[in-house]
Design brief:
Heat Shock Protein 90; alpha+beta; 11 helices; 7 strands; 3 domains
């Protein structure tokens, strides 16, 4: 609930309490006055006179004082009742909040005075159910991915052990076969390293607590390095990477985190590009706006998958393979890093071309 809504509710309850105290007090005083001075005046006088003449004379002499004390007592009693009712409202609110925590599927029902709060609490209840479902779904995805990757780890490890065993036990293996077995073992070892890194991402990476250290960096130089480091992966898939760039673009940011973000996008483009195609990375700066676009040719991504592509543990390619199967965290981490630099990222899929757009504001 917004602050102005709280103030509105608080003022409404306070005004209603004051009005009730005034109305109930005035009504009670009028009724009491009619009864004492009107209907039962003679009866009360005769009763007091017969009971004790001195008391009767004292009451007549101090009638104004007695009425004042009586009216004050009525006011105090009515105020107590109204304030107690307000406390009952507070207990009702606390009970409703407790109900939301214990039974979120059950609709909250409050008294008429709290109708505004009732609506808001029910909205909170719905949001809580949604958050719980999303958390449960994310946990299930995380557990599934850990199980999948644990299974995937066994495959390259078995190959590594098998080929190394052959190299150790068979002394007369031809040199060309030795080189072949060593290359296979190396590739499988690299895959084990990738899966291990993904395990670290899943088990220890907190997307909501990612510290960044900003310093002046050259985005063009950073991208040049990433493309150069990706050369073996590009060669393996018979891909080319064209970097369209100016001479340099200075930016105040965390170089390590941005390298991770851009590296994730480049690796994603490599994994999901058609073989023998070209990946384009375009970097440009207009005024104080920096735009970076990763463009590759691959299978079209359905619209409903594009909407979830930056979600944690979500993979647009649901066919899990040992060569491209990721943790589903890469794009989520990339989005978080870009947003921590006050930028934004979005994706477009036009026919066979997939484009990731990054927009940053020049802060140097």
């Amino acid at each position: 609930m917004r602050n102005d809504e709280f103030i509105k509710l608080k003022n409404s309850l306070a005004i209603k309490a004051v009005i009730r105290i005034i109305l109930y007090s005035i009504t009670s005083v009028i009724i009491l006055s009619i009864l004492i001075d009107g209907i039962f005046n003679d009866q009360l006088a005769n009763y007091l006179s017969d009971m004790n003449r001195r008391i009767y004379i004292w009451c007549v002499a101090n009638k104004t004082l007695l009425l004042g004390i009586t009216y004050l007592s009525i006011f105090v009693i009515i105020s107590f009742i109204v304030i107690r009712k307000a406390n009952d409202n507070m207990v009702e609110i606390i009970s409703a909040m407790d109900q939301i925590l214990k039974e979120p599927e059950k609709r909250v029902k409050l008294s008429d005075d709290l109708v505004i709060l009732e609506s808001r609490l029910n909205n909170i209840r719905v949001d809580l159910i949604k958050s719980q479902n999303e958390a449960s779904e994310a946990l299930q995805k995380k557990n599934d991915l850990i199980m999948y990757m644990a299974h995937d780890l066994k495959t390259p490890l078995t190959s590594i052990i098998g080929y190394l065993t052959l190299l150790t036990e068979e002394r007369d293996i031809p040199k060309n076969l030795q080189e072949k077995y060593i290359n296979i073992a190396l590739k499988k070892s690299i895959r084990v390293e990738e899966l291990t890194n993904q395990f670290f991402d899943i088990t220890r990476y907190d997307l909501h607590n990612m510290p960044i250290t900003k310093q002046k960096i050259d985005l063009v130089f950073l991208m040049d390095q990433l493309v150069e480091e990706a050369y073996p992966m590009l060669q393996e898939r018979k891909l080319k990477c064209v970097l369209n760039k100016p001479k340099s673009i200075d930016f105040m940011g965390d170089g390590d985190k941005l390298a991770r973000a851009f590296g994730n996008l480049l690796k994603n483009a490599i994994n999901y590009s058609y073989e023998c195609t070209t990946i384009e990375i375009n970097i440009k700066k207009e005024n104080d706006k920096i735009e970076i676009v990763f463009r590759n040719k691959g299978d079209k991504i359905p619209e409903y998958k594009l909407e979830k592509i930056f979600d944690k543990f979500y993979r647009a390619d649901e066919s899990r393979t040992s060569s491209t199967g990721g943790s589903g965290l890469g794009l989520a981490i990339t989005k978080q890093i870009i947003e921590l630099h006050n930028g934004k990222i979005y994706v477009k899929n036009d026919n066979e071309y997939i484009e990731f757009y990054i927009e940053l504001i020049d802060n140097v």
